[in-house]
Each structure stands twice: as structure tokens, then as C-alpha cells.
Design a protein that fits this description.
Distance between the termini: 27 Å
Number of domains: 1
Number of helices: 4
Strand content: under 5%
Structural class: mainly alpha
Largest sheet: none
Shape: globular
């Protein structure tokens, strides 16, 4: 993934509470993945990438500026998902404030 997409993604996620909602969604995604593996619900693993979106989308509409829409409206689903993961890791590294 190019930095061009990530920079565009970060512009759409400039508010800390929007990033916080994405961070919570990523934690839920990780928990869901672990649950699926522990319970051996292999088919449910297909839905793992979708767990984050109720948190992320609500973050955009509740805490984002007017007209702020999730990035998968502007770029491919996979690119947006990869940007989600990268922002999560960068947040863990202290590069983004979420509160």
C-alpha cells in the first residue's frame, strides 16, 4: 500500500475520537478472531474484516466533521482495511492521539 493512500486516509480520520472508534473496532476484531479460533468456527473467520465497521462508521458520523464518510467510499475495501490496521499499529506506537 502506498503512503499516498494512507495520507488520504489520515486526512479523513483527523479527529482523535474518530481514531478512537477505529481503535476500539480493531480491538473487537482481534477479540472476534481469537474467539473464532478458540471455538473452531472456521466459517465465521470470513466475517473478521467486517467487525470493525460498526465502530468505524459510527465514529465518522458521530465524531467526524459534517460530510465525513468512511474511506471505503473513496478507495477499495482492502486498501481501507489495510489503512485501518496501519493506523491501529501507529496508534499503539504513539504516533496518533485517540483521546
Amino acid at each position: 500500500m502506498s503512503d499516498k493512500y494512507y495520507k488520504q486516509y489520515l486526512k479523513n480520520h483527523s479527529r482523535p475520537k474518530v481514531k478512537l472508534m477505529h481503535f476500539i473496532g480493531q480491538l473487537a476484531t482481534i477479540a472476534y478472531f481469537i474467539f473464532c479460533v478458540i471455538t473452531k468456527n472456521w466459517l465465521w473467520l470470513l466475517f473478521t474484516p467486517l467487525v470493525v465497521y460498526p465502530f468505524a462508521v459510527s465514529g465518522h458520523y458521530i465524531f467526524g466533521p459534517k460530510g465525513n464518510k468512511p474511506s471505503f467510499h473513496k478507495m477499495s475495501f482492502l486498501t481501507a482495511k489495510w489503512c485501518d490496521v496501519r493506523m491501529f499499529v501507529d496508534t499503539l506506537r504513539g504516533k496518533h492521539k485517540i483521546w
